[in-house]
Amino acid sequence: MIFKTISKKDFNKFLEILIENNNFFAPQKIAKDKNKKPIYDLREIKNIGDIDFNYDIIKYPPRRFFLPYREVISSFKIENNTWEQNIGYETKVPRVLLGLHPCDINSLNKLDKVLLLGDYPSPYYAIRRKNTFIIGMDCEPKPFCFCRSVGTHTVQHGCDLFLIEIGDSYFMEIFSNIAFDFLKKVKTKDTTKADDDEYKRIRKLKTEKFSAKVDVTDLTKILDMEFQSDVWKEWGDRCLGCGSCARVCPTCYCYGIEEKIDLKFQNAGKLKILHACTLVDFAEVAGGFNFRPEKHIRLKYRYYHKHRGFVEAYEESLCVGCGRCGQACLAGITVPEVISSIRE
Amino acid sequence: MEYSLKYQDVLSESKKIKPGGRLNRKTDLGNFEKTFKSEITGVIELTPLEKLFQVQIINHDERERFSFKPGQFLMLEVPGFGEIPISISSSPSRRGVVELCIRKSGRVTNFLHKMQRGSHVGIKGPFGTCFPMEKFVNENVLLIAGGLGLAPLRSAIYYVEENRNMFKDISIMYGTNVPGQMLFTYQYETWKKIDGIKLFTIVQNPDKKWEGKVGLITDLFEEITIDASNTHAIVCGPPVMFKFVCNKLNDIGIPMEKMFVSLERRMHCGMGKCCRCNVGSTYTCLSGPVFDYWTVMNLKEAI
Ligand SMILES: Cc1cc2nc3c(=O)[nH]c(=O)nc-3n(C[C@H](O)[C@H](O)[C@H](O)COP(=O)(O)OP(=O)(O)OC[C@H]3O[C@@H](n4cnc5c(N)ncnc54)[C@H](O)[C@@H]3O)c2cc1C
Ligand code: SF4
Ligand code: SF4
Ligand code: FES
User: Fold this and answer.
1) Nearest Cα residue to atom 1 of ligand 2
2) Is A283 within 8 Å of A291 (Cβ atoms)?
3) Which of A145, A234, A260, B240 is the most buried (most CB within 10 A)?
4) Chain A contacts of B9, Cβ < 8 Å?
5) Which residue's CA is the closest to the ligand 4 atom numbered 3?
6) Can you tell me the ipTM of this complex?
7) pLDDT for A260-318, tens place per residue?
């Protein structure tokens, strides 16, 4: 790993060059929530002054830059009894994303496992992943963050550059050759012993700050033991089956396909639209038979997929502990609460 | 120094794709959305609800490369209407043409039923696991189907028929709700004539013409003696059927590992991505649809 430090002034210079030459997305205030607290999201910016470095959390997961909510995956031109297929996996625009927190970077690493390393790697995803330059930034744990419990509060890989604020400079972890080359034009310094100590101090402080916790020890087995537990019914009674949790989750990737055809039967499109396992029709099959007809069974399935099935397949959970689902849930259902109620 | 990012086409560079740093396993990307354009070369009406479609891949090379095993399925694309998983019903040794038995049950299948010879559809595949016929060698084979379950089983029937000397006794058990739902009735006489194959049928609600047995598929077990020590079974049918039939087989003494079932789930991709077919940690489209019953018993919510 290559470590460097950069003064904030030089870093801003660096950003200016990047903004000028690329499609650049960074945190911005986009609205206020019901408690008058600002909501931040990644937006395209043209001026460095438009970046809000005081953002606490990017409200909507950066997943959408890689897995859009809806996309046309192929189209057909139909003529009489035959047709031609056109496959549109290309997005010709590379881009830069600034400000992803460790949980968000780790969420992309988890998606990589499914969408790049499986039996059928997805070119739609790969093309966006490969053409996106990611600058990660460290963060302050919020009361709902439990990334430490699932081991996603630090970054091992998955971005090009990662920054941690130390006084007037940033401590930089350089992960890619592109980042290394890009940085050549601005002034950076090799890290000193004092920088390293400061890094360690800050990281230690952060680790101590987490208030929300989830105990994942033996969770796969405990979930199996509690499959029939009444606790699920209690949560199911509260759940609205609205799917908001999946909508804001940075690791949810389930989808459905819809095909559309124009009235003249000439042009047809195949749309991939993100779905959610807590929605009622997710597991319905022919004849209207539904494998998960009840709310508590669907909510349970969501937890089983993330904390059991995925663990069995990839040795890690499909949850990065960002707490977004709990924040978005109108019924106030949060992962730490559900898991601890299952463990009891 | 150039500060704008260079666009990279992953499909052509797929051998060395390296997202975000460490993930540098070589990934070979395929254009999996591409569907083989195929012609409907024949349509046979089996019942008012089910038709048998003969489908042939148009491109010669693609057709030559296409092969499958009994129990596998393909994704059938009707442009503009949808793409659905359908089991392959024909003989795996018959190259070039697949037969698909399709029940009218919704948007795509309704439209398919209106399609004629000569129209073009798309196929992708084959997908999924197969009935492990090589495990059945020198064993008795029980083929048990309910309703539309005979569609995937038919492919296995062709296989045992063509490789008759590899297996001992073969029994086919088939049950439907009413006699009019029986599929492939025109082939029963041929099947019965194959040396050592026994065919048993049963319906739940007979009509006036029905002279055969009446009851549930499990009632057919009264008719045959099964040597549990060297028998394998395949069970295909609606979800409710599995539990009853497999429990019965287990009571007789056939180990769960020697029973194979084909699970149905909603499938939108067939490639382990959309999660619609997910059961526990398992994708039915990748690890299934054919599972041994032991695995199924260890999957929560599988049946
Ligand atoms: C491995 C496998 C093999 C199959 N083999 C056959 C076969 O040989 N013959 C046959 O007739 N049918 C088969 N099916 C079922 C067939 O895929 C569905 O009946 C078909 O998708 C319904 O499509 P539709 O658009 O006509 O129905 P829709 O209009 O979409 O809806 C009708 C009903 O089917 C459900 N459905 C929609 N899409 C799917 C889907 N992809 N999978 C399951 N259910 C769905 C809907 O929820 C609804 O309840 C198989 C299914 C699987 C999973
Ligand atoms: S399940 Fe909730 S806490 Fe976990 S990654 Fe998804 S949104 Fe974040
Ligand atoms: S858990 Fe909350 S957000 Fe998720 S479906 Fe239920 S009510 Fe909606
Ligand atoms: S059909 Fe999409 S994951 Fe199996």
Assistant:
1) A319
2) yes
3) A145
4) 90, 127
5) B272
6) 0.84
7) 999 999 999 999 999 999 988 888 877 677 888 889 889 999 999 999 989 988 889 99
